[in-house]
Specification:
The protein is of the alpha/beta class. It has a single domain, classed as Rossmann fold (3-Layer(aba) Sandwich), CATH 3.40.50.1820. Helix content is 37%, strand content 17%. It has 10 helices and 8 strands. The chain has an 8-stranded mixed β-sheet, sandwiched between helices. The N and C termini lie far apart (39 Å).
Length: 318
């Protein structure tokens, strides 16, 4: 399918080079191949952008006992004795692909740049495990962390992981120890696929509205009647009070863009603190391009700054 002309104006040459490289590994029609092939392609894509861990960052694989199984996790540490909070991270991948290895170098760089320990969660994926398996896993790891440490927790997630981070924020907001903040990067939070950026950017490079519907069907075993459940689509929660300070980074050329904006609007209207940042000229999954595209490099720095300010409990983002 040809790329709409508007993206030839919105997207710069560096970003087009990034898009071209990703499509050599993970083609635009990847949702039409088997899940096994999708995972192979996605892992190859992520490996092609991976870099070595920064010096002084260590990574240790571990597991948390869930109700029915062990939940694999990876703990990143940079031996910063002055650290305050810890980061709980959930990877993207449409709830179908991705894991500890696909986002490994990203997690290591976040750990180094913020000076905070980071726990990445390898939650169960569809279609082998439908919702709420993924949600149950992130809740289980969160409960484990707060039982083991008094350090406050900052939630971090990109794409599908942003959904899980927000769902966890909603589930824990009235507890004595709720997260002190959440940073969501181009999150999927619950869409009306017939409106807004889902129409404006329905054929965007990297992610289309058709892709979003595919992933929603995969996660729910085809039962979209549950789509408005707040645990599955936090944007549909009727109550946005008492949520932690929230910073959402979106991409201009992304059907998910408005979900982040609408979520922040609801947090602010409910008396909370939320900031929406639209990264102009960027596309979904731009974190992969943080070393090759200047706009993505700056976006990554903005994410690090947001985490650092939440760690300091400083609401002076802009």
């Amino acid at each position: 399918m040809p790329i709409p002309d508007k993206y030839l104006e919105l997207v710069d040459e560096e970003t087009w080079a990034f898009i071209d490289k990703t499509q050599r590994w993970y083609p635009p029609d990847a949702v039409n191949i088997s899940v096994h092939k999708q995972r192979e392609a996605y892992n190859g894509l992520c490996n092609s952008f991976a870099v070595k861990h920064p010096e002084d960052v260590t990574a240790q694989d571990t597991a948390v006992s869930g109700a029915e199984h062990e939940i694999p996790c990876r703990l990143y540490s940079c031996n910063n004795i002055e650290e305050n909070a810890q980061i709980l991270y959930f990877h993207g991948g449409g709830f179908v692909v991705g894991g500890l290895h696909s986002h490994d170098s990203y997690c290591a760089e976040i750990c180094k740049a913020t000076g905070l320990n980071l726990t990445a969660v390898d939650y169960r994926l569809a279609p082998e495990h439908h919702f709420p398996a993924d949600y149950d896993d992130v809740i289980g790891v969160y409960r484990h962390l707060i039982s083991q440490s008094q350090k406050p927790i900052i939630l971090l997630g990109d794409s599908a992981g942003g959904n899980l981070a927000a769902a966890l924020a909603h589930a824990s907001r009235r507890e004595a120890r709720r997260p002190i903040g959440q940073v969501l990067v181009y999150p999927t939070l619950g869409s009306d696929w017939t409106k807004g950026s889902c129409v404006e950017h329905a054929e965007a490079p990297m992610l289309t509205t058709e892709d979003m519907i595919y992933y929603a069907r995969m996660r729910t075993d085809g039962d979209l009647s549950m789509w408005d459940r707040k645990e599955l689509s936090p944007l549909f929660d009727p109550d946005f009070t008492n949520l932690p300070p929230t910073i959402i980074f979106s991409a201009q050329c992304d059907p998910l863009r408005d979900e982040g904006f609408n979520y922040c609007e609801k947090v602010n209207r409910a008396g909370g603190k939320a900031q929406f940042i639209e990264e102009l000229g960027l596309v979904h999954s731009y974190l992969l391009a943080r070393h090759s595209v200047n706009r993505a490099k700056q976006a990554f720095k903005n994410i690090v700054r947001a985490i650092t300010l939440l760690d300091q409990q400083n609401w002076q983002y802009l």
